[in-house]
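Let us practice reading a record.
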Amino acid sequence: MTGKYKISRGHSRILGSTVEQGGVNFAIWCPPATEMELLLFKDVDDANPDSIILKSAEYKSHYYWHVFVHGVTDRQLYGWRVKKVPDSKPGTVFDPLKVLLDPYARRIVFPQNYNRTLSRYVGSNLHFCAKSAVIDMSLYNWGREEKRPLHPMKSSIIYEMHVAGFTRNPNSGLPDNIRGTYAGIISKIDYLKSLGITAVELLPVFQFDSLDAQPGKCNYWGYSPMSFFAVHGDYASRNDIYGPIDEFRDMVKALHKAGIEVFLDVVYNHTSEGDASGPVYSYKGLDNSSYYILDPDNPEAYRNYTGCGNTVNASNPMVKQLIKDSLHFWTEDMHVDGFRFDLACVLSRDSTGQPLSDPPTTLAIDCDNRLSDVKLIAEPWDAGGLYQVGAMAGSRWREWNGQFRDDLRCFLRGDNGMISRFVNRILGSPDIYKEKYDDPQKSVNFITCHDGFTLWDLVSYNEKHNEANGEGNRDGNDYNFSYNYGVEGETADPRIRAVRLRQAKNFMLLNLMSMGTPMILMGDEVLRTQHGNNNAYCQDTEMSYLNWLPGKDAEEMLRFTKVLLSYRCRRGRKRRDSGRDFESLQEAIANNSITWHGVEPFKPDWSHTSHSIGLTVYSETRGLWYYVFINAYWEGLHIRIPSVPHGEKQKWFRVIDTYLSPPDDIYSEKDEYFPIGHNYYLGSRSILVLVAPGRQR
């Protein structure tokens, strides 16, 4: 008995707080401690909690502390203190008065006077500390009909979105209480279905500190987690203990019912505790030298391979287990379908920061049987210069292909010397993935993402314009491979707006047509602009929100995108001889030899100054020939179209010409084919797609 609580030894089989018969088991990893203190709070603002002191004789099993507290139930708020350690060696961050979060907590709550700044200083934080909450994950009813869509990567279309930004705009038409929430996403599922995507990839939903930003700004993106288990509370319309957890699961269940998978952008490479000047709220205070990569020559300093102050020591066995346990939680308890690992190369570094040829953490994730049907996507680089596109350890990893983004940008804006690189990108980057080319979905293709210009800004600005971030426009990438086509920023000039819209369509078309799995950025389908800001991490403003009342150009882009996405993903619908099917085009490219063309048939231009290329390929599945011609030249081209192979009497039919105005720019399923002769004028900066029924000999 300790005070008013009856306690017993407990166990460390499950870390965190676990509701069991008669009470709650608390378990935490803290090898250095010789005495620990468990604090039980009456409410979120309680500054005088009940205390349970644990000494190693009974409540410590090697590295783990554990205690069973009788009579305690779910919703109990708690925290830990490391009361004693045998010595304070370099790199130790030890403060017996500091209340620490449980790394395995499923919910984190904040008092009204929570203070991130004061958490940096030595001494008690009882009056303003965040607190962990006991959660019983078994209480939620998923229902018998809930199941994962399990779309194959070859027919997947990923939609990268910010939970809040998707519906926070006042013109979303939603009630104020659900704008910018998980519930808001549920209300807009019909839009996602009409768009035609198969998966949403949510920017970080791990609990983060919104105050982790420059003074006067906020952490909008959320790339600084406080926990790898707790869901972010501010994205919920309900603020009770279970509100965010249940609302998130409601969202997942509703998306699954609509046939849409849920991927999470996960940040296991750093935390919100920052460097030596940052706050102490969990990992630092428990075992700083195990959780983070420290400078061997100066253990008081943190190695910063993330650009965010600290780097998680993923090669540490316990940290590896923490990451795997987190992935198991999100897949098994929250029913998530996949993960995109932010700065995944960090997981390939050892405890001193050196790259490993056989990194234990990435390989352990790759072969984890509990994750066997989960999509794993890596951002295969980090801020320390490690670049592993095509070289991630483990065969299951898919990769964000940054070279696809850069090479398509350069080719379409008219750079010289890009033709061979461009062709490699649309063919699934066989020069990068070489021995893995039998899996063309290894490459996750994208033109834009949260980090950088939006699609409309990519064709509207030559330079970044990040002044609103308050960092003197020094932040953000300086190398965007963008082009404004005559005027920097917005313009009413119809000629410039026309070429920008055409290039936006070209980028979208190439992304959806190329070998690999395409990802598109939220709002690109309606030409969302951030006014040239390519690093809107701190912009919780309409700059970052989806505009639900787009203008004329945006409506044209939306129609084009919807029809295009229907080409890419048929979701099992039966098709006959329709050429409006990029799955069969991809299959044809993967399984057949390609015939290349220039402005004259069979005469491709591979020179340094080439800005155009054509191809023909046959689809066995559909019994169709495809002809595609990409003109990245700033002038129109007269092209000679080859005869349909082995079908002298067959005609080519136009499916897409991005130079033309709607509805001739792209034909929807209900539209008739338009027959094409052998001579065709293709306008500047545009793409032509033709189909013809036939057979291959």
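A brief commentary: The chain has 15 helices and 28 strands.
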